[in-house]
Amino acid sequence: MSIDISPLRLGSLTINFPAIQAALSGYSDLPMRMISRKFGAEFTISEVLLDQFIVSVSRRKSRFYFVGEGERPCGAQIMGNDPEVMCRAVGRLIEVGFDLIDLNFACPVKKVLSRGRGGWLLSEPEVAIGIIERVSRAIGGVIPLTIKLRKGFDETSRSRENFFKILDAAVNLGVCGVTVHGRTVKQRYEGESDWVFVREVKEYLLGRGDSGVAVIGSGDLFDAETAVFRLRNSGVDGVALARGAIGNPWIFRNIKSILEGRELPNPPTIEEQKEILNLHFELAENLYGESRAATNMRAFAVYYSKLHPNMPQVRADFIKVKNSTDWNNVLKKWY
Question: What radius of gyration do the chain's Cα atoms show?
């Protein structure tokens, strides 16, 4: 029996499959996004893009932030703390074809926080609101604007007040969706994601009369069953697959099967895994060249190897990969 799930609406965008591939620093580049789409993801978001990088990088290197053929709609997630630079960067992202801009006020990485970016802005609501206001004005309704938040900077009552202050202002300024990760910035990835809080955010917006503002839940979605359970029981409009989708694009296929009332497919065979590993490397090599592709794919291979019955040995061999020959040798040995 299929599960009645409404489409995910983000401003002018309508996404029929409400499980999206989240922005992932160092991971959700064009190759990963294309692989996710192959298995059913209808909306993907770029890896987190630093505003200063976007405005300073040469056009030749703009391949690191562009929309590939056949991958629309696609969103770009941007991070920074200077409204003027953010607006210039957003202009470039719109020029290259992204269909949505997502502002990151959630990243918990220490280097990011030390520079007043990402999750740090949850402790500086006026700065965060200023960025939202300027970016919203710069976009001018051409494409949708969303934000990514964590539960708060920490567990204090002040942090909670800051969260809802930013949320209220964002909605008033025309933000059409918010992704909520149920951990605080200080928690990083420790402990469990608080889905009670995620549900509270959706109920809060409904209480405000803002039923048209989408809430996307995030955190600890490592298998299809959990993703569907959270989607149904938290009242959110969609779920964002982050770490759970690295090296496991089959999770999108599995979620779709559950939502459509079908039995879960069998886990991917060794041959099926090999096919995707080959395709992923080929896409990376076409984008970056052989050397950089090999470096990037080592990070993905650590996750792909978790599906292999000989995971420790496979992982150890993948970590040594330096070029396409090394990659193919690992596949011949283990796949």
Answer: 20
